[in-house]
UniProtKB/TrEMBL annotation, chain A:
Name of the protein in its database record: NAD(P)H-hydrate epimerase
Cofactor(s) in the UniProt record: K(+)
Signal sequence range: 1-18
Domain (YjeF N-terminal): residue spans on this chain: 60-269
UniProt keyword terms in alphabetical order: Isomerase, Metal-binding, Mitochondrion, NAD, NADP, Nucleotide-binding, Potassium, Secreted, Signal, Transit peptide
Organism lineage string: Eukaryota, Metazoa, Chordata, Craniata, Vertebrata
TrEMBL record, chain B:
InterPro entries: YjeF_N_dom, YjeF_N_dom_sf, YJEFN_prot_NAXE-like
Superkingdom per UniProt: Eukaryota
PANTHER family associated with the record: NAD(P)H-HYDRATE EPIMERASE (PTHR13232), YJEF N-TERMINAL DOMAIN-CONTAINING PROTEIN 3 (PTHR13232:SF12)
YjeF N-terminal domain location: 24-234
SUPFAM superfamilies: YjeF N-terminal domain-like (SSF64153)
Short name of any one Pfam family annotated for the protein: YjeF_N
This protein's name: ApoA-I-binding protein 2
GO molecular function: NAD(P)HX epimerase activity
GO annotations of cellular component type: mitochondrion
Gene: LOC113064914
């Protein structure tokens, strides 16, 4: 009976590079059959061991670079998947039917970098899921990608605030806040207007859902008197700061890590359920 | 039905619209020009949704062969790139795709999609065996991402003519992406590919009216303004799903 191995063994080209024509027989059959089976066993073992890796800042940056340079992903591709994960996680933690305030208003605060971009994508998907997001985007990068993401939101009738509301106004108007200010590249001092924004966030009582890193926290050591979010959505893999996370919901998102990259950095990622783009870690 | 910020929708449910070739092109142009979506972004959205639709039509547990293998046949243009992204996500969903991508677009964006698949260790075939039995035995299903609404009657040219002849003979199920290859957007081809499953992207096309197989709508990203402008009357997606069975 012919199977996949035989298909490769007959001498059809099988290459993971897709370049020149090669013909293998037995050797290729063994390689081909190992391409997939090794992976599944590895994942089963890791899920049982449950030792997901928490990344340091440099490691996170290396992985990011590899995704773009070695694996040829584009920022807009991965940002779309990351933003979708954030919106999905938020929907699981704060389902529409559970919200206390009507209409289902949500405040999304976007910072000056890629974390902010994730927030813009998240806002757009939240709108499609039936929420009413408003975006605060005080410092916008000049890159075309961010302008495009902004336009996409504006044309979905997502309102953009001109200034950060006071804490008591936020509590009155919004059901929760999505913190997409600073991500894993954050280092050093917080520049305005984000210092003021973060102090307001520390005063609110509605939940905060942070994208990748609670903003203002050191990416590895956390921040005892920083914001204390209710939800953290770690993207790709959690960072060391997540060890200090004390909120109710810790989700993993960004389901795009190639198996080879996962193995190289020994990320030990859990098995996402079905086709879900988020995995609840706690 | 749609969560619009305007006045309430009427109680009667309007029928889902099936798009003509011109409407498909106009919508895509508006998405890129006015709404500033990126092409790579759209292809990622479509490919991801397409993969989810495949898992609904053929759950892992339903596959009859020992390994969850499938063949993704990709054409040279956008439909093919959507196939590449679909293959990559199916890999993430624990399927074992193999890709046949004979005529590759020189555009760097499409090349990026290829590299992404290669680096996921997805094998690429160098030629499609004309012996159909080999395909029937090796794969559980075939994903047809050869020709889409954007292609101008390539079905008579090589290598597509040969590919389509082979695909028409396979006994395993065919899943077509957006438009069954060889069909005109506005009407089905009488002796064309006969897929078991059709995954319409964004909105169904006119040729899909009366499609007798399993029909899925995939891709949940269309701004409400466009939905209204073209009177698409899209069904309501449950929860956070991006695929719905029609």
């Amino acid at each position: 009976m012919l199977g996949v191995r035989a298909l490769f063994g007959i001498g059809l080209l099988v290459t993971s590079r897709g370049g020149s024509v090669l013909t293998h027989t037995g050797a290729c059959a063994r390689i081909a059959s190992n391409i997939y089976s090794k992976d599944l066993t590895h994942r089963q073992v890791c899920t049982m061991a449950n030792t997901i890796k928490y990344l340091g800042q440099e490691e996170a940056q290396h992985i990011d670079e590899e995704l773009f340079n070695e694996y040829s992903f584009s920022v807009d591709q991965l940002m779309e998947l990351a933003g979708l994960s954030c919106a999905t996680a938020v929907s699981k933690g704060y389902p529409l039917q559970s919200l206390l305030k009507s209409p289902p208003r949500v405040l999304v605060i976007c910072g000056p970098g890629n974390n902010g971009g994730d927030g813009l994508v998240c806002a757009r998907h939240l709108k499609l899921f039936g929420y009413e997001p408003s975006v605060l985007y005080p410092k916008r990068p000049s890159k075309q990608l961010f302008q495009n993401l902004t336009t996409q939101c504006e044309k979905m009738d997502i309102s953009f605030l001109t200034e950060m509301p006071e804490a008591d106004v936020i509590d009155e108007v919004y059901n929760f806040v999505v913190d997409a200010i600073f991500g894993f590249s954050f280092k050093g001092a917080v520049r305005e207007p984000f210092g003021d924004i973060l102090s307001q966030l520390k005063k609110i009582s509605v939940p905060v859902a942070s994208v990748d890193i609670p903003s203002g926290w050191d990416v590895e050591n956390g921040c005892p008197d920083g914001i204390q979010p209710d939800m953290l959505i770690s993207l790709t893999a959690p960072k060391k700061a997540a060890h200090h996370f004390k909120g109710r919901y810790h989700f993993l998102g960004g389901r795009f890590v190639p198996p080879a990259l996962e193995q190289k950095y020994q990320l030990n990622l859990p098995q996402y359920p079905g086709t879900d783009c988020v995995y609840q870690l706690n | 039905m749609n969560h619009s910020s305007n006045e309430k929708e009427p109680e009667t449910i309007e029928p889902l619209r099936y798009l003509s070739k011109t409407e498909v092109a106009t919508i895509e142009m508006e998405l890129l020009r006015d709404y500033r979506f990126g092409q790579q972004q759209l292809i990622e959205i479509w490919g991801h949704a397409c993969a989810i639709a495949v898992t609904k039509a053929f759950p892992l547990s339903s596959l009859s062969k020992k390994q969850p293998t499938l063949l993704v046949v990709c054409g040279p243009e956008q439909n093919g790139s959507i196939g590449l992204v679909c293959a990559r996500h199916l890999r993430m969903f624990e399927y074992e795709p193999t890709i046949f991508y004979p005529k590759r677009s020189p555009q760097s964006m499409h090349q990026d999609f290829t590299v992404q698949c290669e680096k996921m260790d997805i094998p690429f075939l160098s030629y499609l065996p004309t012996e159909v039995q080999l395909l029937n035995d090796a794969y559980n299903l075939v994903i047809d991402a050869v020709l889409g609404p954007e292609t101008e009657h390539k079905e008579d040219k090589e290598p597509y003519a040969g590919m389509l002849v082979t695909l028409k003979q396979v006994k395993i199920p065919i899943v077509s992406v957006d438009v069954p290859s060889g069909w005109d957007v506005d009407e089905p081809a009488k002796d064309g590919i006969n897929p078991e499953v059709l995954i319409s992207l964004t909105a169904p096309k006119k040729c899909a009216t009366g499609f007798s197989g399993n029909h899925f709508l995939a891709g949940r990203f269309l701004p409400y303004d466009i939905q209204k402008k073209f009177e698409l009357n899209l069904p309501e997606f449950p929860g956070t799903e991006c695929v719905i069975e029609l």
